[in-house]
Amino acid sequence: MASSAVTSSQPDRPARPNLAFRRLRGQRSPAEFAAVIRRAALEIGEQVSCDARYIGRVEAGEIRCPNYAYERVFLHMFPGRTLTDLGFAPRSSVRGRRARGTEDAPWTRTTNPADATRETSGACEPYETQNPYDPHHPHDTYEESDVLRRAFMTGGGATVAAASLGPVGLARDASAAQRPGRRAGTSEAGALEEAVRRIRLLDDRHGADGLYRRAAAPLRAAYALLDAGATRQTTADRLYSGAGELAISVGWLAHDSGRFDDARSHYAEALATARMTGDPGLEAHAFCNTAFLARDAGRPREAVRAAQAAQRVARPVGSARLMSLLALREAGGWAGLADRVACEQALARAQTLFERGPSEADPEWMSFYGEAELEGLEAQCWSTLGDWPRAARHARRAAELQDPHFTRNIALYTAELADDLARGGRPDEAARAGMRVLDLLEEVQSSRIQTMLAATARVLAPHRRASGVSAFLERYASLPRTT
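Now predict its structure.
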């Protein structure tokens, strides 16, 4: 679909870069600084959904003043400084203001006066604690709230679609997006990008099983936005990129919950979108996930070929960390083919690339890829090759290194450790690791992890007399099964 550009007014108040906040980041990448902020939040009992994109928006000046949760975290991180010292506008200057106009259309009111009053009164931090799916991740900014309010207040099909993609990101029904209306603009593109981020954050913490079916509605709404057309080519590019990334995110939810055919379809859709728009970053991401899926589905040769294709298209992106991850995807395929030499070569390449460090070219979706993930993926390779002691060493290190925000990954690495220990003849240690996984499954829903635990339980069954094994098996047997 090609979109036509129209002449429109510019924002009343252009964003000014927040240079003070940029200086505070120093040499760290946006993703690394976001991880530091999340850790600082946990130190004071806060939970914020900070990622590389949030850091970018702050530094670009798009976020004039953080919400109260972020304010508490920032003041904890930088004692003695005020929000103004950190480059933000005084809260009084943004509190209760009306939504700003955008480059696409002025703010309009299509509801009754009572609704308009609710929209502007208390506009400082609306919706902050009203996410029904994830109360621990309130809205990040006033600007994001403006996007959501404006989407709900206007009546066009594109904006209704955007509303279903808002910061909650998991609306149950996007059918309203099919209604005819004005073409999509920056508000809708921003809502789509926010939906992708929100789904990823929820998956990081809670796993895929409880999210997959709810994530279908935002994906339908994304395609409705594409059908609605866009006001500018730059907006159309954002919509296509956002729809492709959302397809990959939904595909991953299907992948992680064992719906391999659905995942393959979503990844193929993302790949087609990437090729249609000439987006090498999106294409590399789609191939990356396709390689991972092929490995899990028992098609290791396809995994190797997809990973190699990803590396070819990813070179122009200029991200060593991305190339490192893709080398690991290739290593997983070689391990599945029982080619130890090729696997070791790919692992060595992945390690060398990883050691070059992060860069501004690293894609936002790679915020999960740190040393812990590197160790975890290497553990999976050694496990596939049957080197249980080596696999266990890497899995243990992965679990120890993982940022606490990534609850699902901690559970995954610990499940890998339990299985490697069990197969390596250390049933008592395996049972203890398995118990830790069961504790984590109280907040994580992942068919992948439950499948791993089932395999571990089968291996441990003949060792019931070993210390802790019987208790683990009994507790595992009482675990509710996902459907």
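Residues 1-13, 95-179 have pLDDT under 50 and may be disordered.
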